Amino acid sequence: MELVTLFISAVLINNIILTKYLGVCPFLGVSKSVKSSFGMGLAVIFVIFSSSVITYGLYYTVLVPYNMEYLDLITFILVIASLVQFVEMVIKKFSPTLYKALGVYLPLITTNCAVLGTALLNIREGYTFAQMLVNSIAVPVGFMLVMLIFATIRERLELSKTPEHFKGNAISLIVAALMAMIMLGFAGVV
Predict the structure, then answer these.
(1) Residue 114, class by beta-carbon neighbours within 10 Å (0-12 exposed, 13-18 middle, 19+ buried)?
(2) pLDDT tens across 66-108, in order?
(3) What torsion, rounded to 10 degrees, do the Cα atoms 10, 14, 19, 21 define?
(4) Does residue 132 contact residue 49 with C-beta atoms inside 8 Å?
(5) What confidence category does residue 175 fall into, taking pLDDT thresholds of 50, 70 and 90?
(6) Pairwise CA distance, residues 23 & 4, whole Å
(7) Which of 36, 43, 78, 186 makes a 20 to 30 Å CA pair with 70?
(8) Where are the alpha helices (H) located in the chain, listed in sequence order?
(9) Taking a C-beta distance cutoff of 8 angstroms, is the pair 140, 49 a contact?
């Protein structure tokens, strides 16, 4: 039951984008279409899960035993950068259209603070291996869920009569704020 609560909490209540404000750059940049948001979401799921498992293992098998915990940040960044390069090569080879749709935001996963934030959060919260696995799946699922909902709303906003002063980023930020308030409404449930 504890793992289910952790999953629901990470997806809805403590959503990485809407409550921790990590990963806002791809959230605003890629969410102009559902297709590119879906592709980015899948890439982020793979990178966050893989990097979290690898960094968790490295932290507890290499850094802690040798009293080198202070190297966690640089170690985690190197792991994340390597994984993003791998994902970029795979997407470029198997889906050139998605590669073009993601554009500059795909390499930016390397510096996506949601990826590094999740890896660091798993360590800082003192999660067990099972909790880390659940959190490392739930966080990117929440990321992807919010990206897809936001992309759907943005596509509809393009077709609606939005007042001139609210077009573009202004209405996007208003919608993001409303989404954050909705997600915080789940706080009493879990």
Answers:
(1) buried
(2) 999 999 999 999 999 998 888 889 989 998 888 887 777 778 7
(3) -40
(4) no
(5) very high
(6) 24
(7) 43
(8) 2-8, 24-30, 34-58, 72-94, 96-102, 113-124, 129-159, 169-184
(9) yes
